[in-house]
Structure prediction request, 536 residues.
Amino acid sequence: MTEYTVKAYKDHLMNEELVGVECKSCGHLMLPPRPLCNKCGSMDLGWRQYMGKGAVAAKTVITVPLTRFQDRCPYGVVIVTLDEGVSISGLLLDENIDVGSRVEAAYVKEEDGVVLAFKAA
Amino acid sequence: MSVLSLHRQVSVIGAGMTRFHHRLHQDKQGRELFVEAALEAAESVDNDFAFGDADALYLGYFSSDMFERQGHTAALMADWLGMNPKPAYRVEDACASSGVAVNAGIQAIASGMCDVVIVGGVEKMRTLGTKEVTDTLALAADANYEAGVGFTFPGLYAAIASAHFSKHGSTWEQLQQIAIKNHVNGKKNPKAQYQETIKEIADKLGERKGMIFRDEMEFLNSPLNPVVASPLKLFDCCPISDGAAAVILAADDVAKKYTDTPVRVTGIGQASDTMALHDRDDLTSLRATCFAAGQAYKMAEVEARHVDVACVHDCFTIAEVVATEDLGFFAKGEGGEAASEGRTALDGEIPVNPDGGLKAKGHPVGATGAGMVYEIFNQLRGQAGEHQIADAEIGLVHNVGAAGATVTVQIYRRG
Ligand SMILES: [Zn+2]
Prediction:
């Protein structure tokens, strides 16, 4: 059984760690973790921690929310390309952030877990 | 990429569609909508056709589970059409559910397993309010890593728009020309949800609110067009709709029995991409569209410039810009400008969404791909009515699942 599970990812988020995997066969970096490399198919993987710093690649401010996020409405969501080269989506905590802005990961703790977020770096 | 081919040629011999609408169908369930579309499809076959003539049913229905608290909907529809014991397959590929159902039906005939197949789709969405629909549509994104951090379905396309604006210099004003054009087309389509131009809607809403708008842009810039997910506003988004569409496919050698004017399937393509938008190298392009279109063009032995009329997946205005670029109608980054110049209008060089598109015609998710085939079937037979493109010979259908993790393309030719 793989150890590279969604649960493991979420457990790390609780500790304010952003983790994925690195393929030992081809060097491909993945975030979040997966059981096999989506580039070469290898299952020879290892944990890889990301620093959580990067630049905004896409941004929106949502005014028609998901029920789970309605208390935050309006809220921003961004896609961030991390300095390591992988990208990930997160809630946006700061205003005045636009495509190209530097951001860093933040971890928003809620009753049912942690939401990955980004704030101005 | 090798050129794929169909080992047996396939034609469309009939197509039907309910009107797509947000209120009209409130007393009907999905099953009644699908039967209505299928009956119209059967009626459209030139010589007698009975549902029992079909060897299988392929049904696209994205979320009957959430919308109608009903699973197992392919068997349900086959039963309601009186097709037992013919096999029935439900396809769930988000907004591309019936595009995939059409491809699956074509492949079933090409394989020799079937001679005649009914394909189609349905979505009964208006059982839920906007909030619950927003939650349900977000199921088509990655539940952990996209919806889990707040992304809605409009939010994903808004992210694409922000990246497109930044990389290619396209503008929100350009996007408005797509909404305006699709409403102009929808006004000419008796099956469309909105048969009004945006100017007419502006005048109507303005009168109610005591506001006067000089033109569409003044209205679209007003508080009557609120932000849904910036930079996308209400009129950048397709509406929530109920509706169904059905298409009857037959092997070419069998099609002769049913009609002298079939519409031939000359190329099909389909591709998958990363589930999460953030895993794509280029956020301004749907790689699965490029791949599926490449496959379909090669199979059909045509290029983008040969297409006379296209139905593309404009769930949001930005999606039509991206689609017309990825399908090769315009260079990357020039789709917005091309639309602004009228090049995709009914009288343009490549008319896009003559039926009003998802924007004005409506988007009952699971019915959309088959609804596009209904439009192209009528266009290529010269029976599209007020929005007919003169002498259309080659038509293209492009159906996208969510933010592009599934894309289907088909190319049709007048028989
Ligand atoms: Zn690898």
Observations:
- Chain B has a mean pLDDT of 97.
- Chain B is about 35% helix and 15% strand.
- The longest helix of chain B spans residues 153-168.
